[in-house]
Every structure is written in structure tokens, then in C-alpha cells.
User: What shape does this take?
Amino acid sequence: MDKLLVLGSVSLSGTLLAGVTALICRGLKGKISARAGYVLWILVLLRFLCPWTTSHSLLNQAVETPQESWTLAVPEQTNGQSQVSVQPEKHLVPIAPEILLWAVWLTGAGVALAVRCVSYARFSRSVLRRARPAPKETQAVYAALTGSFRRPPRMVCSPDAVTPMLMGLLRPVVVLPCLSLEREALEALLSHELTHWRRRDLWVKRIAVAVSVLHWFNPVAWWLVERLDRACELACDETVCRGWDQARRARYGQLLLELCAVPAPHFAACLSKKQCLKERLIHIMDHKRKPFAGVLAAGACVAVLFTSVALGAYAAPTEEKPAGSSVQLEQQEVTLQWPMETQGSVTLSVPFGSRVHPITGQTTSHNGIDIVLDAGTPVLASAAGTVAETDYNADDGRYIVLDHGGLTTKYCHLSEIQVTAGETVTAGEEIGAVGKTGKSTGPHLHFEAAQNDSLVDPLSLLPQTTMESQR
Assistant: This one.
């Protein structure tokens, strides 16, 4: 369940960060470069992908693990005596809802991934199947543009390509439609695709697809893929058009309109979407100088990064080896009974081992077991022995320690103590009452056991039959 909570909190954190980034981009529209806007959306993409967090992040503090309790079927115990002696079985019953949630998520992610892969495979196969070398004039223009590049992508023409595009990650290919274009238009289109190649934009887009698959249940993750594509095209146009005069910008915009007249496939550059095309045309014709653009862009990046860190995600507790867990009991018969009357079952709120402290929020070792009981319930000695200590401290509240000869038991958070140090008690004798003194979120009995000063799991010494996990 913790991993599902991490995934859900990362998705929520990315959603909130996407909203903040959208507001920042809207407020700074026309004041920062398109490349800066592209970087901002890449930061949002990373928030969806990486569950980084801090202990003080908002979502880490807000997301709480559902309180888990354990119900144990135990022999009925009255007057301090257990009617049946059974061997303990410590088996947690699988939690069906968690398995169901994992199955739903895996099914959705598998379907989303399959649809993406099959669609792209069919499209790329149809485009490259009929590809052929470009005309010599086109090859000459391409050679002039890539002369200073090391191992540029190869270039082909395909009748199934309605718009220029860059395909492939490891072996990229620039695909051109079979159109007769003037040298200036050809240079612009090729420069656009080469800019994608130099900036590794295809890798960013594949990561965005991975995010949409992992967070298939979140509409914002799918919206982010589209928004990132738009920011990518705007940034690429900005790089290509740098230094152009108004007339050449207008001719480039007219070229995009002509290409848009032919319906483009889903995986092509976002020319077919009218809103995206309108945004690109406006940005291409905007060549005004933007004062303080660098300062504003830097401030926007810092704001997005700060928000990302502040939001954070849920940090699942790490497994810690509990103190004394590796200690083996001596080969001897140790008989304890439950430190209260039972009616055939006992409910534990926290077992022995590591746990997230309900007050401090830190993952710590839990030295005993917490038994859910009403305030005032009589606490019984679990075995005959001597009262070694009675006292009070801020953590355990009022507590009693009994010495049973090599084995000690401790009873904490008591409302009252009815024995004194040095007194001899018998098994089942009333020694105190349940309370909530010390660091306690409610009435319960914290019960510890130690063999030769080494902590052991009290359940290994107590009679029980089965354990059932509940939330």
C-alpha cells in the first residue's frame, strides 16, 4: 500500500505543480523566451517521474498511512489463567484491496503502453516503408546545414509523410514529404528538425509518454504531454527564426499554413491542431526584444523548483531492523500469559519492530506491542516474579518492570500503579490499570519482554492461534 501511496502522491504533486506552472507561464506570456517556457514544463515532467521529497514536504506530512491493527484469536483467559496453550502463528493475511488496486493500475498502464507502442509502430512502418533517398538538390541543402555536425541523422523522403518529422531515438531519421520546395523553405524546415535532434527533444517526448503511461489514471498527465509538445515546437521555432526579418518570418508562417492544409497523423509535429498552429504563428511573428527576459526566466525556474520541493511526495517508511530481533531465546520453556483478561481475541494497534511514530512521524523501532484496551482496564502480571521498578517518564508514562528470572516484562502508559518495587507478585495478579500517560495518542497498554536484557517479540512468548491484519 505504501508504494501505491507514493505513486498517488507523486501524481497529485505533479498535478499541483502543473497548475502552478500554467499560472506562471500565463503571467509571463510574451515576457520570457519560449525556450525558458519549455524548461519549465520539463521540470513539471520530472516531478511526475521522480518521487523526490523531503521530510517536511507538504504531501509527505499530509498523506498518512491508514492505521493498521491486528486481531489475534487467543485462548480465553479469566482470573489470570489461560485455558489452552497453543503455539503462535505469525502470518499476516494478504490485503485484498491492495492487490486489486495493483491489478487495476497494471492493467491500465499495460493498455496505455500497448496502444502507444502499436500506434507508433504502425505509423513509423508506414512512413519508412516507402521512403527513398532525397533529391540531389535537397541533399545539397542538407549537407550545407549539417557540415559542422558529427554523425547527423540521415535524410529520406516519403510519400506517406505529410509534414517534415524526426523519427527514431538511437538511429534518428529526418523524413521529408515529397514536395517541391524553394531553398529558403527547405532550409527552414530542415533547420527545425535538426534543432529537435540537437536538443534531444525526442527523448523528452518519450519520457513524457512514459509519464502518461505511469499516471494513466490522471488526466493532467495526458494534458502535460500535449502541453510539452506545444512548448517544444515554440522553442524550436524561436531558435530557427532567430535573426530573421519580418518578411522571412511571414514566409515561414505561410509555409506552415500550407503544410497544415494536409491532415497530419497523430505522431507528427503538432501542425494539425489549429490552436497550436495559431500560437506558433503569433510567436513566429513576434520578434520584439523582451527586457529582463533572462531574469524573469530564472525567477520562474526557481519558483517552479521551490514549489516542486515544497510539495514533495509521500515518503514511504523504510524498513529498519528492530532492536533485538536477531536475538535467539535460550532453549528453555518460557511461559507467559496475557497481561489482561481476554475474551477469545486481542487487538494490537502496533506490533513489535519498526513503525512510523504517530506523534513524531519518524520511523523508529517499536520495542514491544501495543494492545488496544479501554482506560481503567486492570493490568495483570504475565508471570510470577518480583517488581524490579515502578516509575514515570515522558515517553512511557507510568510503568512497571517485573523480573521473572532472566526474563523481564514491562507495562507502560498506566493510569495507576498498584505495586511497589521489591514486592513479589503471582501470575495473573492485578498490578495496575490501563491509561494514556506519557507519549500516547489514546488509552492502550504497551507491553515489552526482554530475555537477558535483549528485547524479544512478546508474541513469541504469548499463547495465540491466528493473526488477522485489518485497516
In short: The first strand starts at residue 69 and ends at 73. The chain is about 40% helix and 20% strand. Residues 109 and 213 are 5 Å apart (CA to CA). Residues 321-470 form a domain with the Glucose Permease (Domain IIA) fold (CATH 2.70.70.10).
